[in-house]
Amino acid sequence: MPVRKKRPAKAKAKRPLDSLKYEVARELDLPKEVLEEGYWGNLSSRQCGAVGGQMVKRMIEAAQKAIAEEAAAQAIAGFRSGLGLPPETDVEIPPEL
Fold first, then answer.
1. Angle at the Cα of 43 (from 54 to 8), degrees rounded to 5?
2. Is the dihedral of CA 69, 72, 76, 82 positive or negative?
3. Which of 45, 48, 46 is nearest to 34 (CA)?
4. Of 1, 18, 45, 88, which one has the fewest beta carbons inside 10 Å?
């Protein structure tokens, strides 16, 4: 069985994931060698796991928001269609209060 390398499914995803990783690391107050030099070797598994866990949490929240916005846009388009109004291509959904 070939060994699978740990890499993003898309090469273009690497840079945004790294940005997110370091943003989370800053918020978790990890040692400066992680932020300045990119050396993660002195961190415990718990600290690294906390970074990964926060990354996943944020990605899930972003996906849920995107799905909700898409569903709202489709609902608006359906209402417009039901009322016989022309479809709008740029429907702006007001942010939640």
1. 50
2. positive
3. 48
4. 1
